[in-house]
Every structure is written in structure tokens, then in C-alpha cells.
Amino acid sequence: MAKPALLERLKRGPLLADGAMGTMLHQSGLRLGRCFDELNLTDPHLVASIHRQYLNAGAEIIETNTFSANDFKLQQFNLQRQTIEINEAGVEIVRGVIEASGRQDVYIAGSVGPLGTWIAPIGRVTEERAYAAFRKQIATLIYSGVDALLLETFSDLNEVSIAIRAARDVRPAVPVIANFSFTRDDCTVLGDSATRVAQHLASAGVNVLGVNCSIGPAQLLRIAGVMQQVAPDLPLAILPNAGFPEQVRGRMVYPASPDYFGEYALAFAELGARIIGGCCGTTPAHIQAMREAPGRRSPPACHAGERAAPRRTERPNALRATDRARMHVARRPIRDHG
Ligand SMILES: [Zn+2]
Questions:
Q1: Ligand 1 centre and the CA of 232: distance in Å?
Q2: Is residue 186 part of a domain?
Q3: Which domain holds residue 189?
Q4: 3-class DSSP assignment, residue 252
Q5: Looking at the domain assignment, is residue 281 inside a domain?
Q6: Cα(334) to centroid of ligand 1, in Å?
Q7: Which of 55, 229, 240, 245 is deepest in the core (most CB within 10 A)?
Q8: Cβ neighbours, 10 Å, residue 272
Q9: Contact predicate 316/255, CB 8 Å
Q10: For residue 217, how far is its CA from the centre of ligand 1 (angstroms)?
């Protein structure tokens, strides 16, 4: 039996999304700074193996490995002529993994990140060029068969509006999930509050609004609560990173453990979030812990900030940062992510 359309399914209860792709690719030995999206063409089996791990961990939404697959970011690697192929392959890899699993209940979310350059008037890229880049990537993802578009790690209201317009122009009814990232002061890098972001996304006509990456689960629970009050009729998505990464002996370490994510999964569900999952620094173990969370009793432990693991007796989750979340808080375009 065919699965219900994503937005119908969300009315029945929360869906579990996957975690980081870039973190896992880096753990497999790939160096930072390379183009991870290109792997859809050059090493699809590696990308598929990570999707499969998230599927086995219980994820019901798998994101395509296309976060940076737009003309602007691919141009940095001289790959802009392969934008369409990279996005097509990204969808095909996820579809292949889902079909091989026999699962009927898994959705493909086409990941779309910011362009990696500021748009006028903040930057020099014109709105027309930005629209053309988004439309090219988004049209490819839609025509390749994604169940929804996942606009993630955005911080510019104008930029996300352009992406949403491109999506609606290609297919008016495509489900659009739009997730913003926030800095330590609970504002975007451009200084917009959660209230303003939620108002903007609601008026822009997104189907699901939410938060991702940022400084970890506790912060995003707080921000998502604000967004929900502003837009109570819209489903909410929460996909935090594994806390704020710190340099430890020359490498980046994410502090939040899978158990910590499991505890917060309960809090996200209690808030009413309809899509929960992970971002930078999260692994299949985090997603599995979130999957198993409904059976747990313990409420999430509150702690100041997300810099430290909630239980100091646990070893920090020593993952190398692939995408340097500090890029998400700097006034610079985000290049790598996932
Ligand atoms: Zn992230």
C-alpha cells in the first residue's frame, strides 16, 4: 500500500528524520573541505551506506546528500556543470536504499541549503541569480521524486523567501519544510528573532517550520516553543546539532551524547514537534536513541547552555566536526554542513 502523503502523515504523529551526513562521511576518512555532494556521483555506495545506517536506526525521513548542491557552492569546486546530475543522483541513492530495505513508510526529503553567498542588499548576488540557482536545484529534486523539500540552516529571511518562491513556481503543492539556525543569543546571524522568523515563514506559506543545527537540543527546544506560539497551526521540525563543538587537542568535539538526544526527543514530542532528528555531529546512535525515547521515563535534564554533556561521567561524543558549526555562527556564508 502506498504511504500517505507527508503532510497527511504528519497529522498522525511525529516522524523521525536522520542525522548528520557530513559527520559520517568525515568519520569514514574523508578530509574536511572537500565537496561531499560530489560523492553522489563518485562514491554513491559510501553515501548509500550512511543512508542505510540511518534507516536501520529507525529514521523515517532520509535527507538527500544535496545540502550544498547549488551552482554557487559547486562552483567553488568547479563542479557547477554537474549541479543537475549531483542532485538527481542524490535522490536516486536514497530511493535505492529505501527500496532495498523493503520499508514502505520512509520519506525522501530533498536537502537544500543556503547558496553560500550573501544576496543583495547584504551581498552582491542579485535576487535573479539567486532565484535561478535555487530553481535549478529545487526543480531537479522535485522532478527526481522527493516527497518534500527541506530548506535547512537558513539565516536570511530574504534568501529563504527566494527558495520558497522557486519551489512554488516549480510545483505549487510540494511540501516545503523550512528550518532556520540560531546563534548563542537565540537570533539568526542577521539578528532576527525566533518570533520574526516564524512570522516570516508562516506568511511565506511553508508547510512545516522549524529549527536545525544551532547550539544543540536545549536551545532549539526553547526557540521552537517560541515559534510554535507564533505559528500554532503549522507543524514544527526540530533537528539540533550535537551541542556546540569545541576544539579538543586540535579536533572538533561535539558534546551531546545519544542518550541526551533520546531524552530530548521526548521533550520535542511533548512540545508537539512533528519532525525530529539531528544535525551536525549526530550519528545513527543518536537517531536510534531518539527512536527508543518513547519507552523512557526520565525527563530531559536541563543544564546551562549546551557546551557540556549532560552527564559528565559519560565520555564526550568525540566526533570530528565536518562542517564546523562555528561557520553557522560567523557572519560568513555556510559552506559545509550536514
Ligand atoms: Zn548542522
A1: 25
A2: yes
A3: 13-329
A4: strand
A5: yes
A6: 10
A7: 240
A8: 13
A9: yes
A10: 12
